[in-house]
Each structure stands twice: as C-alpha cells, then as structure tokens.
Amino acid sequence: MTSTHDRDPADPGPVVRTGPDGTGLELGAFLDWGRDLHHQGRYEDAVKAFELILGVDRGNEEALIGRNRAVRRAVPRWHWEMLHDEERAELYDRAIRQAVAADPDALVLDIGAGSGLLAMMAARAGARRVVACEGQPSVAETTARVVRAAGYDDAVTVVSKMSTRMSVPADLPRRAGLLVTEIVDCGLLGEGILGTIAHAREHLLAPDATIMPSRGRIVAQLVESDALHRKNHVGKLYGFDLAPFNRLSTLEYFDSRLHRHEHRVLSEPVTVFDFDFRTADARPQRTELRIRPTAPGRLHAVVFWFEMELLPGITVGNPPGRDSHWKQAIQCLPAVQRVQPGEPVVLDAMHDGECVRFKVATGEPAGEPLDDPVFEVVS
C-alpha cells in the first residue's frame, strides 16, 4: 500500500493520511496499532506503522522508541559486529576483486546482502551489474539508502525478497555469473546456506557461475570445561535439586568464545563434514567418527567451527583463538563421560541441512541423562 503523509493545519492534531479522500487516523491510534503489531511479533509491520507516524511528526518520541524496539527485534545485533570484522571484510574483498577481474561483465548476485557491503565491493571492483538480495524489508530499505549514499546505485540494485522467491527475468535480467554470499552462522549451516545455494544453482545462476564461498568444512574438537557445562546444565544448588530444569536446556549448539571459558582440549581437531557448494544440497547427512583422546578428562562438550574457501587460496573461518565476529559453536553433552588416551570415542555427527549435532556413541555416560531423547535420528 502506498501512503501519503500530510499535516493538515485545520485539524486539532496531526493525522496520517491513508487515501486520496483525505481520511486519516489520529497518531494515537497508529501508536496503538504499532504496539499491537509488536506484541504480536509482527516486527516489520510494526516498523512500518511507526514510520507512518514519523512521516508527519518526525520528532515523535513514542514513535521513535517504538520503531527502534521493533527494529531491534527484526534486525539482529550481530550485523554491527560483523561489519567491524576487518579480517573477514579484507578476505571477501580480495576474493571479490579476483573474481570480478576474471569477468567484469558477469552479473553478480549477492544473497543476504545485509548492509550491501559485499555488493558495493563487487561494484567497486568493476562489476557492471550487481543484484543485492535481502529478505528483511527494514534491512533491504536501509541497504538501498547505503548504496545510494555511496554512489553505487547505478550498478547495484537492491531486491527486498528472499532469494528462494526470486526468478529470472522478474528479479534478475539474466542468470548470474558470480554468486557472493555469507549466510552462515557459527556452525556454518544455521542460516540455510546449503538449500539457498542449491536453489540458486538451479534457478538463478549460469551453469559455469563462480560460487563464493566455493567450499565449507566443519571441524570439531572434544573439550573438558566445567564453565561451558554450567552454561547449559544445573544440579544441586542452595540445598535444592534443580536438575529437572535441564529439560529446558539447549539440545543443539549455542555460540560462545571458547577462549573466554576455562577449558582443556581432549583431542585434536577433526573434519566432520566437507561441503562443495558447487554441488552440495541440503539433504541430511550422518557420519561416524572415531576420535582418539589426547588427554584424560571429562568430556563436557563438542566445540566446532567452520573453514570456508571463498576462492582457492582465500579462506575465512572461526577457529578458536581467531578474533572473528563469529564465535565457536558449542554443543554441551547431556551427560559427562570420562575419556582416556587410547580409548577411542565414537562420535555420531549429523546434520539436517541447517543444524549440525553430535552424539557420543561409546561407553556408559557417568551423569544423569534427560528424561527424553536428546538427539533426533536422521535417516
């Protein structure tokens, strides 16, 4: 719906015009509407409601606060930390310049454009046409402003749509020759990179398109850490047995910086999954790993991270110790198990296309398992 915003001096208070007949609602009603949308979890719609008010009363403090609260819900805070990740930006910039130099006429598709940084890097490198796809409306609108302010709006077009809803020629003038994307979380798969790239290969990319990143692998390590264990487990405290509360603990992984928690590594890092994004799809996979502990200890968690090859020789990732905006992925185990060097730990690793999870399949756990199964079986 297209709305016009006018202030009518004849009215006792400011109104938001919603149609050519001059009818409107008082701002109080729009404030209530925006708050109701927020409480319903419709944060993008709440942003629009508050922006209607700000269109006629730019300094309305209630609307400013309401809009900001909705934006904070709709737009994750990690955007800012990611933008300040200089190593990640420099590596992507180097890879983009190399790919664009090889074919400046190739249409570039940036999926999950965010601020538009990678799309503008492609334009700065000499790409003549870039389509930046961003699924969050508030972010997409702001991306277009960023691109316009930077002077790249002649080369970069922002599409406010999920890439899986895009098509040629409705959203792309032709199939793209270069795909650039960074839709990964700390565990690599959590933002749907496998399915997104598979869809793009089928519907949006030329057969010989360059895909960036081209590969991604997941690396895991066994860890002893009471500090990590306490982040997801509780027992007897203050004279009470609080263990039943563990039914609400996280069954899969959460993100945290390993070096900020006292820990001991119990094994060497091992590669769990290795994806070629030029061919991989989102079908579930399962693999069994035999890991030989390098030290005795109590196995509290599996810590894992990714390494992405943008182009041959250019790799970005989030291993422990690297100052990346991506933290490490931590999966705490439901029961503590003692391990010894020379006694292999069988680690059952699986993914469903969007989430990696682990199960220790050897030995009898020494702790108290949860009442219900923790791991789903992936066939």
Automatic annotation (TrEMBL):
Regions of compositional bias (Basic and acidic residues) in chain numbering: 1-10
One example GO MF annotation: protein-arginine N-methyltransferase activity
Classification via InterPro entries: Arg_MeTrfase (IPR025799), PRMT_dom (IPR055135), SAM-dependent_MTases_sf (IPR029063)
Location of the region described as Disordered in the Swiss-Prot/TrEMBL record: 1-22
GO biological process: methylation
Keyword S-adenosyl-L-methionine: yes
A Pfam entry, by short name: PRMT_C
Domain Protein arginine N-methyltransferase span(s) in chain numbering: 218-348
Keywords: Methyltransferase, S-adenosyl-L-methionine, Transferase
Name of the protein in question: SAM-dependent methyltransferase
Species: Actinomadura bangladeshensis
